[in-house]
Amino acid sequence: MNTRFFGDTGYLLGRSLRHIARSPDTIISTAITPIAMMLLFVYVFGGAINSGSESYVNYLLPGILLITIASGISYTAFRLFLDMKNGIVERFQSMPIARSSILWAHVLTSMVANLISVVVVVVVALLMGFRSGASVLAWLAVAGILGLVTLALTWLAVIPGLTAKSVDGASAFAYPLIFLPFISSAFVPTDSMPGPVRAFAEHQPATSIVNAIRDLFTQQPVGTDIWIALGWCVGILVIAYLVATATYRRKVS
Question: What span, in angstroms and rounded, lies between the C-alpha atoms of 69 and 67?
Fold first, then answer.
């Protein structure tokens, strides 16, 4: 990586952010579904779910933040697919720019857009009664985990963005990621689940990530959950990055 890479990435990032600024419905669409879920579960189902001593919105928010990110990264695949299909990537390749800057611009755009969506969801949660006595360091740790999750899932989104045959195929890969928190500790304690479902829920990435964020919000010892969560995120990130960059080189060679 050199100054040319950073300059090219910055220019292409500005281009992508201008597109989002002209079309704010992308961020609105990303945030509206998680907010609707949060309203539904807190005000309709919350009274029937035993989440312990804390309020249900406090219990629910970490899982809703994961769903927000999973919804947002589908737009990365969508935007990259359109750039590939419309020939914009080929046009960029004919210019004297760093090839990897094209992918990194899409990834950084996803980071910025998802940050805005997450902030919107947290503000709504505060209006609904979410409260946390977490320290500044704990909030920074939460932000770091969510940033790492976003980065890992964004590189995962790059793969269908490069390989999909249709717009629907590019964005549909995010549906399983949105569904995954439902089979975790995000909405109900895993203790209430039947055996096989509980075994899956307790050994999939969403549960460790949700538990780590929840413990940070409630100032509880995070234990091994945070290390398991980081392990999942780093593992997904490394594999997704290697597959995405190899696919990209094959596509543009």
Answer: 5
